[in-house]
Amino acid sequence: MYTTLAWRNIWRNKRRSLITILSITFAVLLACVMRSMQLGSYGRMIENSVRFYTGYIQIHKDGYWNDKVIDNSFVYDPEKLSEVNQLKGVQTFVPRLESFALSSFKNQTKGALIMGVDPEREDELTRVKSKVVTGRYLKPGDEGILVSQGLANYLKVSVGDTVVLLGQGYRGANAAGLFPVRGIVKFAMPQQNNQLVYMDLAKAQWFYAADQLITSVALVIDDPDDAPKITRQVEEIFSGGSYEVMDWKELVPDLVQSIELDNISGKVMLWILYLVIGFGMFGTYLMMTAERQYEFGVMISVGMKRLQLQTIVLLEITFMTSIGVLVGIMLSLPALTYFHFNPIYFGAEAAKAIEKFGVEAVYAFSLDPVIFTNQAYAIFIMAIVLAGYPIWSIHKMRPVESMRP
Amino acid sequence: MSTIIKAINISKVYHKSTVPVHAVNNLSLNIEEGEFTAIVGPSGCGKTTLLNILGGLDQPTEGKVEVDGTDISSMKDSELIDFRLRNIGFVFQAYNLIPVLTARENVEFIMLLQKRNKKERHDRAMELLESMDIADKANSKPSQLSGGQQQRVAVARALASKPRFILADEPTANLDSSSTNNLLDLMAKMNEEQKATFIFSTHDQRVMDKARRIVTLEDGAIVSDVKR
Questions:
Q1: How do the domains of chain B map onto residue ranges?
Q2: B184 in Cβ contact with B210 (< 8 Å)
Q3: How far is A338 from chain B (nearest CA, A)?
Q4: Which of A44, A126, A329, B84 could form a cystine bridge with A364, CB 3.0-4.6 A?
Q5: Which CATH topology does B3-227 take?
Q6: What pLDDT digit, counting tens, does each position of A243-270 carry?
Q7: Are A96 and A267 in contact (CB under 8 A)?
């Protein structure tokens, strides 16, 4: 009967209860959308930077990360790397030879980041094949190059044109060559889209006079959360030589920091929202306590224990909160599912402005269950804390005084 | 007949803006089992305060109250709540039924607190509602009942726990004369048939006419105690 009593009590003042439930629903809905957008965008940024570029773990020669010059390269040892490949959670490894060069076509010249890659392995990590917008992807041993779309537009090159690359090779050797453009690739991150040039690893080693050398090995792993554990295991395998093994948080510290900062501001916004809703909820609890003093007094007078009365009030609050939270999640779920699979892309002008900051111009939405559970926890914790008032009020109440007209 | 309630030299002093007000003043009173007692007197004479003290809702400033030999004046709050549940029935002036429960559920409510089983609760509630001539309204909410009907449900609720005595604070104050007579007849019947002990506070002459003992208060003290 306590449950019946609590449930019926909620609907004694339908309008007030509905307003309270709707305010909770609105808070949960808004909080879910906000967090989904935030986490979705972070995921997208991490994916673009890490999943589709650096990889979650990289192996370099010790010191390379602080001084990214081709002289800090190391010998490509497929046998040792196959040992890494045997580790649980490691899908594959992707060797790269990276350095800078000047790219030139007719009168246009621009600095470019040259990535010597194993075309098949690279595609397993970065899915670069799917990003080819014109022409074709590299074949193993290919003599040509892939040029990122932003750079291609700057140089005004298209598929079939030949680009001049000029740079400094291993230990000061000259690096110069003519490379036919096989394809144009489009990257989401402007930083990559405006400077990347892909070529076959063997060709890059030839270009930079760095025979058998690579500057990094990126690892493709099943679960990014396993990165720290796998990093430690890889460090053990490479413990004999002077190598550095870094996970993605060390590889892109700026990204991690900017995400953390943005995350904090997002959480502050959420707490402001909760605070506003909390005041609304508290108002309801205050009213439902104040207007029922007489009734509470009667119930205690006739023999109801304070704990029983407090339980009923707590049940009422739990019912209202549960309905609000459930409806909020149920409303947000289909909308967020839709936008998860259909992210919102900015219009051309806005996109340009946003991409200037090195960020992809898209609103991505996450469906991480933690988005929904965290809102539910937050609202429930708030409801329980605010329920302290009616519970305290019942604890302190003197029936004779509360029944006095 | 045995004595159920013994109020021994009880006083209750309120402090209103540091001025002491003696609501009950060194009062002693015995209530015997099966009595139908009216406590009467002008407004402010201490009727409600006396009833509250007898019912364990309020503590006397001095003196003590014994129910069946147990001193309830020194009980803790939780003990008193349990004591009231098992020994005392209450009827309030404003009916005070739980608005979201039906008449039957209101009567069952007390028995639920006493942890009686569902069938027993249901049977007892229906029996009481029948004896109060209101069984046909068992499934009605208080808002669907007249004042008289609500007060009859309140009496049924007070009797549901099979209390040692029932305290009724101005039970007819909000009723018309027909409902008052009806209610008083039913309470008198319960007193006769079930030997239920009733103690009323009232200034309603009709209630006084039905009472078999009239205790008159003035300024918190008994000025007359007449048995008929």
A1: 3-227
A2: yes
A3: 42
A4: A44
A5: Rossmann fold (3.40.50)
A6: 899 998 888 888 888 888 988 998 899 8
A7: no
